[in-house]
Amino acid sequence: MRQVVCLAAEPWSGIPTRTQQLMSRMKDAEVLFFEPPAPRGSDLWKRKGRKLRPNLIAYTLPPTITRNPTHRLLSRYNAGRTAQFLQQKLEKHRFLEPVLWCASPAGAEYLDDIAYRGLVYDCYQDWPEYPERWESELAVAADVCFAASPDLAGHLSPCNGNISLLPFGCNYPMFAKDDLPRPRLLRDFDGPIFGFAGTLWPDLDLDPVIKLAVSRPDCNIVLVGRDAGCYLLPELLEEPNVHYLGPVEPVDMPDYLHTFDVCLHILRRGHLYDDVIPSRMFEALSAGKPIVAMLRPDQVEHFPDVVYGAHSPSDFALLCSRALEETGTWARDRRREYGKAAAWSERAEDVNRILESIGLFG
């Protein structure tokens, strides 16, 4: 059976990450999933491996003495200690020459200390917290790099000529269902609902939503998701037709998207030049609902035939009204085609096919 060692950038979560989605779908493979280092003083790394899938076991890496990569001696000591831990687990599970999957530049520290037959770097975001040389070394050494967007692919291109575009995905069957129940919190709402689902980051630009709330007092503006300190949220909540419902369980999210008349996609001010399409966009496409999205400066629209793209808050409010008047089923069906193509099962199939084509999966 194929063997994969994954150095993840995030712990295994009840809300599956990109790395979890892909590792769970590795074809005919045993997977050892290593979470980032445990906090200092924690004994997580001493615990037995957790069997999360029939062929997937998760461990937590040991704590680090320093997380500052400029402390070269301490960083090298950390790397050696962690590499020894990794090698012990590989030997325990008889992983002789696995494929090493790195989900962040941190994996560059262990390349010289553990045995592997092939290296994959999955680049799905910028990593300003790591030294540039780590990512460069990782990309140069990789047999293949996956990039979540064209800009990330261009970023890696000086270091590696074998780069495959692998956007984020979604759980298509979960969101493409019809006749889903109306969530309890929305049962008493009258009138159309413009809905936003996602984390309310501190720099989330809510100006377009404020403009919408003022211009359409006859409609409800509903926001669901964790508030991470969004500084414009209090101003938005001053409008009487705005309702912040807080976070919801992932299993309930399809019910909310299905109930929204129009889904809203807005930008973070600190990520205006980030061209990664988030999973939430593919989920809304899978639901088939009209989507109004704020566009980044000079952005090439990803789905111009089925997503209403706005360049200003005024455009955003106008297009929301237009989206509300959408009729027929052509646009809905076309959105679901985009969502189906972005299913995590399809993304994982692309990964397996590419690894087979370059000989990492025999």
Describe the structure.
With 362 residues, the protein is α/β, with parallel strands linked by helices. 32% of the residues lie in helices and 18% in strands. It contains twelve helices and 14 strands. The chain has helices at 18-23, 72-92, 132-141, 150-156, 172-175, 207-215, 233-236, 253-259, 279-287, 313-324, 330-341, 344-357; strands at 2-7, 29-35, 50-53, 56-60, 99-102, 118-123, 144-147, 163-165, 193-197, 220-224, 242-246, 262-265, 291-294, 307-310. Strands 3-4-2-1-5-6-7-8 form an eight-stranded mixed β-sheet, with helices on one face. Helix 4 (150-156) links the parallel strand 7 (144-147) and strand 8 (163-165). The mean pLDDT is 93.
Attribute tags:
single chain, 362 residues, alpha/beta, eight-stranded mixed beta sheet, six-stranded parallel beta sheet
